[in-house]
Write a structure and sequence with these properties.
5 copies of one chain form a homopentamer.
Chain A lengths: L10 H7 L5 H12 L9 E5 L2 H5 L1 H5 L8 H11 L3 E4 L1 H5 L11 E4 L1 E2 L12 E2 L3 H6 L4 E6 L6 H17 L3 E6 L15 H13 L4 E5 L8 H9 L7 H11 L6 E5 L6 H13 L4 E3 L2 H4 L3 H16 L4
Parallel strand pairs in A: 1-2, 1-10, 2-3, 3-6, 6-7, 7-8, 8-9
Antiparallel strand pairs in A: 4-5
Helix pairs in contact in A: 9-11, 11-12, 12-14
Chain lengths: 314, 314, 314, 314, 314
Amino acid sequence: MATITAPTRTVDEILSWYNGQNPGVLTNLYRLLTHGRLGGTGRLVILPVDQGFEHGPTRSFAANPQAYDPHYHFRLAIESGCSAYAAPLGFLEAGAADFAGQVPLILKLNSHDILHEEPDPMGAVTASVQDALRLGCVGIGYTIYPGTVDRRFLYEQLASIAEEAKENGLVVVVWGYARGGEMKESKDETALDVVTYSAHIAAQLGAHIIKVKLPSAHVWDAKSKQNFEKHNIPIDTLADRVSYLVRSTFDGRRIVINSGGAAKDDESVFDEIRAIRDGGGFGSIIGRNSFQRPWDESLKFLDTIMGIYEGSIA
Amino acid sequence: MATITAPTRTVDEILSWYNGQNPGVLTNLYRLLTHGRLGGTGRLVILPVDQGFEHGPTRSFAANPQAYDPHYHFRLAIESGCSAYAAPLGFLEAGAADFAGQVPLILKLNSHDILHEEPDPMGAVTASVQDALRLGCVGIGYTIYPGTVDRRFLYEQLASIAEEAKENGLVVVVWGYARGGEMKESKDETALDVVTYSAHIAAQLGAHIIKVKLPSAHVWDAKSKQNFEKHNIPIDTLADRVSYLVRSTFDGRRIVINSGGAAKDDESVFDEIRAIRDGGGFGSIIGRNSFQRPWDESLKFLDTIMGIYEGSIA
Amino acid sequence: MATITAPTRTVDEILSWYNGQNPGVLTNLYRLLTHGRLGGTGRLVILPVDQGFEHGPTRSFAANPQAYDPHYHFRLAIESGCSAYAAPLGFLEAGAADFAGQVPLILKLNSHDILHEEPDPMGAVTASVQDALRLGCVGIGYTIYPGTVDRRFLYEQLASIAEEAKENGLVVVVWGYARGGEMKESKDETALDVVTYSAHIAAQLGAHIIKVKLPSAHVWDAKSKQNFEKHNIPIDTLADRVSYLVRSTFDGRRIVINSGGAAKDDESVFDEIRAIRDGGGFGSIIGRNSFQRPWDESLKFLDTIMGIYEGSIA
Amino acid sequence: MATITAPTRTVDEILSWYNGQNPGVLTNLYRLLTHGRLGGTGRLVILPVDQGFEHGPTRSFAANPQAYDPHYHFRLAIESGCSAYAAPLGFLEAGAADFAGQVPLILKLNSHDILHEEPDPMGAVTASVQDALRLGCVGIGYTIYPGTVDRRFLYEQLASIAEEAKENGLVVVVWGYARGGEMKESKDETALDVVTYSAHIAAQLGAHIIKVKLPSAHVWDAKSKQNFEKHNIPIDTLADRVSYLVRSTFDGRRIVINSGGAAKDDESVFDEIRAIRDGGGFGSIIGRNSFQRPWDESLKFLDTIMGIYEGSIA
Amino acid sequence: MATITAPTRTVDEILSWYNGQNPGVLTNLYRLLTHGRLGGTGRLVILPVDQGFEHGPTRSFAANPQAYDPHYHFRLAIESGCSAYAAPLGFLEAGAADFAGQVPLILKLNSHDILHEEPDPMGAVTASVQDALRLGCVGIGYTIYPGTVDRRFLYEQLASIAEEAKENGLVVVVWGYARGGEMKESKDETALDVVTYSAHIAAQLGAHIIKVKLPSAHVWDAKSKQNFEKHNIPIDTLADRVSYLVRSTFDGRRIVINSGGAAKDDESVFDEIRAIRDGGGFGSIIGRNSFQRPWDESLKFLDTIMGIYEGSIA
């Protein structure tokens, strides 16, 4: 196992990678990087709550009935010291005025539901850059599904949205989830080469921040596998793979954060956080694990995660 | 059976949920909530007459020949003290000047006919936000069909229309009817999880007012069923289900109203109204039951419904 | 057989139904209703010449070679005292300046040809509202095909065109022809319920004037059939059916005119005109029967038709 | 065989048919009709060079290697006294400045290649009206394929382009080639009824000048055949058919020109030119026969053709 | 084997071929033709790095880990004296400010990935002309896939982009790769007629610079083969074929450059460069061969190539 020393990056250094972006974008990136408990550390923990749209309200909120209320998530993000809160239009509209300025907001511009099964999902654009501006957001979010047959429409939609967002000084956050017919097995969607390819595509599409799942040690593409072996790229530990993910995403010149893998219990989640930290990752975006438990437990759970990123917890 | 106490909500409280919407939207919401017999109670009864387009004139109006005349419906909505009258372009154009200002109008922007059978319906956009403004409407209506294979096009069309409507101070009313191939049986379309998921999607899409069918106790999705059971969510009575619907729609922070279920006679309808009232629902949208009977009977029928909502009838 | 008294309507009364339309639209409606021999009677006879596009020049004009010349039709409409002349872009462009102001013009904005057979026809938009304005037209025409699988695209195209036309003060004339896979037999396309449903849809789409075929006594939809029977709606004579058509089209608040049915000889056509008159219809749009005969015979034929509408011929 | 006297038309008479078009269009029509050796005769010979795109450079230019050079065609059109030179964007861009003003230019706005076989061809729009204006063209060209399943998209594209072209004073030239599944045999594409229907459609779409193939005596549609027979329309000689083509194209009120049929040698081509002249046609558009031979032979070939049109050659 | 004397072209001569383009385009062409080691020779060597998007980061960069860093490629292009550096949005955004002005930049506007196999590829437009302007680029790049079933959409997309680019003074570089169902075998994609047809199409679409693969002696289309034979066009040596490619691309009036064929080792690459030089080609675009080796070797490799073009190496 490779020994990995996590980089410590200052906000100034990170902003320097975005040299050439307009001052509006830099200002909103600065807000994200300096807000909340991890402000100034170069790490981010973002609370995303789009599960009501993606999986329905019952699956999402029945475990913690307070979470049906859109104000709950604003409060959770604020109290726990998250770097930002990301959600679709409805949830942000229902609280953006009430909590104006208290936490950076990211408007998810496309969403997908599961009322019709489909092997090649395509989200719908459910809000606009203009909506993000009127709601006081620091950025917008968009999900691409690399691997789907119609991904080109998603890339074109994102390209157009991202251009408008940047012109208006908004940060562009891209969720990259590989899906579709060529991903024969579920494990292909988190294969190391697939996840890093997806992150690279998002970066090439002009994303400022990229969100992908944690990669497994599985490799989907035979030629990529040969490359990993021939060039002795370490991929055995999760920290190794996070390190490779960061490298694949412009050698660290773009912020890439992770959502959880197949974690079963809190300790597994915390171990993943440690691997992200040790592999030089930039942080986490944690939804269901955060809000599908009572308020106090949520705060404690997020406190531990931020502690690990801070280094106050080993 | 859970004992349910219906909330009494003031107009001020309801408007507070829409904090952040522009004064134009708040003004038109205020007009809706203060008009007619239920004005100020926080309840709504809306008359919708889009059946001529949706099912043809013969099925819709033969039972009450006066109803072929578009002026009839304006008069019915005004005389009965409805909160608003909703119809497609033609019907509103044929009377908006004659009855200008006498009842809040909602222009239905998309419509669907049944001259060609299709498992996954898609309405056509048959009028514009600009039409609604020139006709003096307080809002626009749009129907989504969650569950259909092409729902994303509907969501995107609605997103674009809703943004324009809000910019122009109009209230956005979304009809949510689950349809499509995954709804194997007709009963799936009114399953509790399906109806509440549809209402949640409409709310996330930025609807101010959501209209869905009354949910049955049937649950379509196995994982949602597990959640209802595991978390002891009461769903046995219609009032329970209305209560869960309100919760699913941003925990009551968005107005959700209902159309009738499979009511056979007036008493069944009235019982449904009582369940909506007792479950904390916001009111009804009642078309065919209202106008497919003679004028006097229509007035009496609507009088009873409003009486139940008011509490003057038990 | 019901005894039917044809209404006599003044121009003022008709314009009152369009209350709320802008003065530009009212002005052009007035021009249509006051032009030609039937001017002021509340009846219209319109000459449409789109057959060259729809069926090819040979089928359309070989019977009367003068009719290949676009000027011929302008002259025919003017000499015979028609209320208006309707044609596609090319035919109007070829004479609009030469006959400027002498007859109200309606520019047909979509057209369809028969060089490729298709069960669900869709016309192409071959001209614009701007074209109609520069050619001095009083209105535009558009054909919808209710019953086709893709009718929603037609409805959306019409909605957009109609909005622009109205903003510019043009009258919107909609041709409604049911077609498509669900019309199993040719006779379904002229079934009473189908024709009246089509006319109702056109009216809901905001048409000022609606043109449909004369309905037969056949009924396509079982539930509509039940309604006709249960509510004792007379449909046996053609005049009955015209009367029901007028009722279905906003109870007479929208102008609905007819093209011929399967007339074999002139007397049959004249009988149809009498039925339209007696049933309270608004007039006719007569193409092939008008121009596929020599000039003098055409004038005589149209003279008789207008005489019937006027009442000078029984 | 009918004896045919070719009309002699002046430029003034031709322009009178376009009465109502704006002065910009009339000016560019005038330029076309007065340029080159046939200037003022009412006849046109146009050099089109789009074969490089349509069939590839090898098939098009190997026979005369000088023809790979875009300047060659400008020189050929100028030297031979052609009325105009028509080509796609690239070929015009490569010489429009060098030969500015020396020959009227027509920019072909859509093109098609044969690197993928397809029964229902659709060209791609490869340049814009704005391109035509910046290159100093007198008009634009567009090819429609009547008979193809998706022809409506072509008609709509043309309608939109033609409107823009006319607003900017450009002449609209439409190529009409019947194709597609209903043209069962190759000979159907040049059937008399098909060619004249295609020309009529182009005229109805607002074309100023129409280009079709020379029609054969074959008739594709049974009903049209009956009409030819019943009404004794002469179609036996090529001159008869050209005469009928002119009649089908607004009875001569629109300029219709021809490309060659299945000519085998120069004498056959010249006989076709005589038939066009004697049938009252307006001229030719001759590509491959013009430039797929050495410079001197090309000039001689075109000299003969123009002589026939002029009448200096019998 | 034909003896070929490579042309020596000056920048002035090349610019003269683009006579009629606006001064903005001429200025940027001048910058490209005068930059780097080959500046002023009329030859170009361009570094393209779009492989991360096209094939994934692992296949592209594992062989030379420094190449994950977007700054690496800017430095390589600058140090080696390349004429320009071409890449997708993300890679250019990550360095355009840091290396502003040091090397001409070409923004690749469409890209394609291989996470879903498809016989008829279509790239996605992932950036805009406006992006190219804000990043200080001299031009934009776009890939067409002649031979694919949907190529017309690509041609239309390119036409629209190219028009906007030219209006803004940007050079238009078109990559032409034949693909699709009619290319039965892989070798068809580099057949001489296919490559030259693709280059001709790109030129007709208005490209200023065209990039295609080196053509083989295989001929795909039987009629083109007959033409090569009948007209004794030499195609045996690579220099012959480069010469024919230049001729097919407007007889040398458009810059056409090549990427490598199936070269196995550096000497084979150098031999190809010699053939391009001797056949009168305009230069090379060399990606993987350039950066998939250590820094020093890359510089040496590119030094040799430029030496061959310069003539300092035989």
